[in-house]
Design a protein that fits this description.
By secondary structure, the protein is α/β, with parallel strands linked by helices. The protein contains ten helices and 14 strands. A hairpin with a 2-residue loop joins β3 and β4. The chain binds adenosine-5'-diphosphate and magnesium ion.
């Protein structure tokens, strides 16, 4: 048991602790061997305490036999460095407009800072995490998504070979959302899109998006208006009527793509809530938003 979990459970009786473990048993059995792709993003990633609990949760998943794969973004961190450099961030439909200089900053921040920090937090618990860019091992082949966005990549294909090899060794891949084309040109890719493509390529059981809202909201200004479940058709309707905007556009598109590619479900959870991953996977608490393919 990790130190912070121990601290949090100190007030509970041994009986209660045992009960919690026993209640997790059917879920542990159900998900044993399952690949779960987790996209780490939003405010959870910039809060040191939440980053620590996230890392220990990922290690716990691996320790009970799941195959976690982490994909991370870094929007706020990229924005911060750009501000320090005197460069303004411009977004179009939730995607960052990326000129050559912005691409360099994004790549440095994602691969050299954010990815390193996550790997470091996980590896406090053991030598498990291996960080990589989507450029490594030919993992993500990309092309220009929209010339107006500059070096923002659209995923052409995912070659999951390198991930299969790491997972076979019980390692935890931590992937920065950068891809490359056949000339070696790098692209900044929305991390939600990367998580979904990787979930598809690995035939993942679930893809889970940790974000800075409690889930998909029917009113973005009302944090209690959580839509607990939606089918692909319902998502289409919510996008058409403008309920879904900003960063939720690529996120919901990614959820839809993942379930279409064969993931059983895609989840949007509140990454600000400690141990939200464990709540979703090992309890019957219906939290956040669950997206499924729906009736054929
Ligand atoms: P992340 O770093 O998790 O990808 P984003 O900022 O890209 O976060 O996307 C999440 C943001 O999407 C929320 O903080 C919210 O401002 C915005 N958003 C727009 N429409 C909705 C909606 N219907 N429900 C929830 N969030 C929404
Ligand atoms: Mg986003």
């Amino acid at each position: 048991m990790t130190q912070d979990l121990e601290l949090q459970t100190r007030g509970y009786s041994p009986e209660l602790r045992t009960k919690a473990l026993v209640e997790a048993l059917p879920y542990i059995q159900q998900f044993r061997g399952a690949t779960v792709v987790v996209k780490f993003g939003g405010n959870a990633m910039v809060d040191p305490e939440l980053s620590r609990t996230f890392a220990s949760d990922i290690v716990l998943l691996r320790s009970v036999g799941l195959r976690p794969v982490v994909v991370h973004g870094g929007g706020p961190q990229i924005g911060d460095l750009l501000t320090k450099l005197g460069k303004e961030s411009v977004f179009k439909d939730g995607l960052r407009v990326t000129d050559a200089e912005t691409l360099d900053v994004a790549r440095m921040v994602l691969v050299g800072k954010v990815g390193r920090d996550i790997v470091g937090q996980i590896n406090i618990h053991g030598a498990y995490a291996v960080g990589m860019s989507g450029e490594d091992g030919g993992l993500i082949q990309a092309q220009v998504l929209d010339p107006e966005l500059g070096f923002v990549g659209d995923i052409v294909s995912v070659n999951p070979g390198i991930l299969e090899r790491l997972l076979a060794e019980d390692l935890i891949p931590v992937i920065s959302s950068i891809g490359a084309d056949e000339t070696g040109q790098a692209y900044n890719i929305n991390a939600d899109t990367v998580a979904s493509a990787i979930a598809g390529a690995l035939n993942a059981e679930k893809v889970i998006y940790l974000t800075d809202v409690p889930g998909l909201l029917s009113d973005v200004n009302d944090q209690t208006s959580i839509i607990s479940g939606a089918t692909v058709a319902e998502i289409d309707a919510l996008r058409a009527d403008g309920t879904i905007a900003g960063g939720m556009v690529p996120k919901t598109e990614a959820c839809v793509a993942a379930v279409r590619a064969g993931a059983k479900s895609a989840h949007m959870l509140d990454g600000r809530r400690p141990h939200v991953l464990l709540l979703e996977l090992f309890t019957d608490a219906g939290i956040g938003t669950k997206i499924t393919l729906g009736e054929p």
